[in-house]
Amino acid sequence: MSTGLRLLFLTSLFSAAACAAAHVLTFANIAFYPIYLFLPLLFLVWIFAVGHMRRVPRKNLISEIFGNVPRWMKVSTALLFAYVVINFFACIYLLDGGNPERASDQRLVLKSKGKILRDLSPTEFRHAQAVQIRMLTGHMLVFFTLAGFVFYACWLKTGPAMADAKIAPSDTA
């Protein structure tokens, strides 16, 4: 794997691990807001991921001759997409479609589109903040991991990885 591709691959995996740690903290009602600092990195990683995917010839993406994409990556991708959808709707349900905010009179409330849905106790407010961060970290975790998969697939489909590729026996022989 080239140095640039390896650096991007490791950046996406370490970022996914950081998002996973912040995601786990939300289940203990801890909202780790510094994870927002990873958002610009997510966009940068995906810009490079799309750039690398565009360099792989289209015939190489489908052909098994140019390095086979492992089955575990295909299954993991499907599971990650399912998780991001389930996590999103579960968080929306837990937040009743609103966001935890401080009202102008310093009350802790759950607001949606400028309307106060209900007042929250300090414990409920912390929980709502954690759920809000859980939704964000769930998405970031999935998309950093998928970027890592893209970089790994680019490595499999180009350059030296093709020398190690194993071709599955064909049924037509």
Plain-language structure description:
This protein has 173 residues and is mainly α. It has one domain (3-164). It has 5 helices and 3 strands, in the order ααααβββα. The protein has helices at residues 3-26, 39-55, 58-62, 71-94, 122-157, and strands spanning 99-102, 108-112, 115-119. Strands 1-2-3 form a 3-stranded antiparallel beta sheet, with helices on one face. Helix 1 (3-26) runs antiparallel to helix 2 and helix 4 (71-94) runs antiparallel to helix 5. The longest helix is centred in the C-terminal third of the chain and has 36 residues, at 122-157. The mean pLDDT is 83.
Task: List its traits.
8% strand, 173 residues, 61% helix, elongated, mainly alpha
In short:
With 173 residues, the protein is mainly α. The protein is built from 5 helices and 3 strands, in the order H-H-H-H-E-E-E-H.
Q: What share of the residues lie within helices?
A: 55-70%
Report strand order across the widest sheet. Answer: 1-2-3
Share of β-strand residues: 5-15%
- The stretches of 5 or more residues where confidence is low (pLDDT under 50) are none
Spell out the helices and strands N to C.
HHHHEEEH
Arithmetic mean pLDDT: 83
Domains, number: 1
Compute the CA-based radius of gyration. 21 Å
Which structural class is indicated by helix and strand composition? mainly alpha
Report the major sheet: 3 strands, antiparallel
Please tally the helical runs, counting DSSP H or I stretches of 4 or more residues: 5
Rounded to the nearest angstrom, the distance between the terminal CA atoms is 33 Å
Shape: elongated
The number of strands is: 3
